[in-house]
Design goal:
single chain
């Protein structure tokens, strides 16, 4: 595959990922509750990934020694999904994704705390900018945003940062599609159990709700992850990381077009600082790039 095709796949992936908050919000507004949304999304994506893996003859086997780490990643992965989808339910879609997208900067911090990687001036600058951006988003939204939604979005970002640090240890030994399948199937099983215990899982959903769930599963999740996996293998993590900064920007544009959501005053500056913080570590004058491949 050529470099241009690889770049196109990564751009396509960023656009696909940017629709996640939109389709989730549309599902919620059509009458689908949180648990039904995240359960059926996990189940549909698992089936789609299984079909793709059978088509390309990719195995499901995970080495016995890797199951402990995979189990830990399953817990972190489902924490990310739970917190992010609750944040999207509570907050405006654009702000939920902007709070979440502070995770690349915090990944640098976890790399330092867990792996002992050096915190360069570039990474420190990214952390400072991300913190300032989050502060502006938070304090400019006091009285307008539910603090519970902010808590869920920020928790998802921190959990995803930890996922970003630990997942490469597994991806060195197991194919990305295999790992992604097991992560989503674990989510489907977990949420089905929760739904069965609480009785919160609804099957008699409106047709419109089912359509949004299918779009969320096919476009925002399965297609987004598959195009990123194959594009990343061609262009490398640095280019992919830069291109992926399109996601919060496209989400904000789509949220404006679909929901008439607008960023106001200091929120605009906060958003710019967060996107800049994501971009800085991947510029040529920066140090080794953070791999921005997140499975959501």
């Amino acid at each position: 595959m050529s470099q241009s095709k690889g770049t196109f796949l990564v751009i396509l992936s960023a656009i696909f990922f940017s629709t996640e908050a939109i389709f989730s919000k549309l599902a919620y507004t059509s009458g689908v509750n949180f648990l039904s949304t995240i359960t059926f999304r996990s189940a549909f994506v698992s089936l789609l990934l299984l079909a793709v893996m059978l088509l390309i003859n990719q195995g499901l086997k995970v080495p016995k020694a890797s199951w402990k780490l995979l189990g830990l990643l399953m817990v972190i992965f489902n924490t990310i999904g739970t917190c992010l989808f609750k944040a999207i339910e509570i907050l405006p879609a654009s702000l939920a994704i902007l709070f979440f997208y502070s995770f690349p900067a915090f990944t640098c911090l976890f790399d330092y705390l867990i792996k002992g990687e050096k915190l360069s001036r570039t990474k420190l600058l990214a952390l400072v900018l991300a913190f300032c951006g989050l502060t502006l988003l938070h304090f400019s939204s006091i009285g307008r945003l539910p603090l519970l939604g902010v808590f869920f979005a920020f928790s998802a970002a921190l959990a995803n940062s930890l996922f970003m640090v630990l997942s490469p240890l597994l991806l060195q030994k197991v194919h990305e599609l295999t790992v992604t399948f097991w992560l989503f199937i674990s989510g489907a099983v977990f949420y089905l159990i929760i739904g069965g215990v609480t009785g919160s899982l609804a099957y008699d959903l409106p047709i419109q709700g089912w359509i949004y769930l299918i779009l969320l599963s096919v476009i925002s999740t399965a297609a987004a992850n598959i195009t990123l996996i194959y594009g990343l293998g061609v262009v490398g993590s640095t280019t992919a990381a830069i291109v992926q900064t399109l996601e919060p920007v496209v989400t904000a544009v789509l949220a404006f077009l679909v929901f008439d959501e607008r960023l106001h005053g200091w929120q605009v500056l906060g958003a710019i600082l967060i996107v800049t913080a994501v971009l800085i570590p991947h510029l040529k004058w920066g140090v080794k790039a953070v791999n921005l491949h997140e499975v959501k």
